[in-house]
Write a structure and sequence with these properties.
about 350 residues; T-fold; nine-stranded mixed beta sheet; 20 strands; binds flavin-adenine dinucleotide; binds magnesium ion
Length: about 350
Amino acid sequence: MRAVRRRIIPLLLALLLLAGCAYPARDPEANESSSVDLLAMDTVMRVTAYGKHREAAELAREKITALESLLSVTNENSEIYAANHALGASVELSPDTAALLSRALELCDSTGGALDVTIYPVVRAWGFTTDQFRVPGAEELSALLERVDYRQVALDGSTLTLPEGVELDLGAVAKGYTGDCVAALLRAEGVESALLELGGNIQAVGAKPGGSPWRVAVTDPNGGGFAGVVEVVDKAVVTSGGYERYFEQDGETYWHIIDPATGRPARSGLLSVTIIAEEGIKCDALSTALFVMGPEKAADYWRENGGFDCILLSDDGRIILTEGIEDSFTPYGDWTDAPVEVLQR
Ligand code: FAD
Ligand code: MG
């Protein structure tokens, strides 16, 4: 069995494309910047604030570390761990955990359960988050799926009650929420230009120093480079794909994005989904959910809900993108000549 995590690759690609942002000393547009690098939420993170903002960058680091210790599903001291082990009793959540969960539940609802934050029993059975990978049998999965239903989560203000057996996993949304918190913190500290690289989640505060848009790489899910570049200002760009974390057994590849309808890795015809919008948690939630939905349902969701742009890379080599991003996305590498379909309302 071979297990793979490749979250470092998108980061390196982003760093390459954003050269000058990650290494601002070489950027003639940026006189001064402060970066913090950290390993959190099992991924490599970098926050760069332009201008004289050393203290703000340090506050960003503290915020990320604090959120990690609240939200980790495996850390026995986290609020999520406590909620998952409360055996039906109510627990009090901190304002951040309550705000994140409340927004996540709205997004579970709006995606018809393609995003389901109670997927943890199934994720654990496959060995994701514990690295003890295995393929659960059909009976085991159908028993576990009885415990998966976000509608069973009762959140009343900051009071959370989970029925016994129901367990939360905020892995699909926590980095997006973290991006929103850090962006808000930096803005409150007077930062007008910053880049947050939180694994596959990129979040931009303002434009690059000098006013040009940030250029963010979209990883080639087939490996070996990137599939395109998207230009953004003041937005989050979040990608989910089967290539990020997976294992192989008996010639089959099993990845970490699970279809809550089957309990098995989602095979919907997509290799990756990139979502672009102002709100990081929405991007994170929808990158996971639209990957589960597949290209047709994802297009329907966008037409019905709007409020974001997306780039879908299909397993038959197509690029499907929304009209709002058409002029700011440039395919690259093996995807340069791929057929492009533009979704219109
Ligand atoms: P996304 O597509 O954003 O999310 C996929 C993840 O969400 C899956 O890994 C699964 O956990 C969950 N998921 C799968 N399908 C669904 C679905 N349909 N609906 C809702 N959720 C779904 N990993 C470790 O190995 N060790 C750690 O110690 C560890 N600590 C972490 C601490 C925190 C606070 C967080 C947020 C994450 C941590 N992780 C850890 C990583 C985590 O387990 C996921 O791998 C990661 O969040 C996946 O993010 P992504 O952007 O790759 O994929
Ligand atoms: Mg996600």
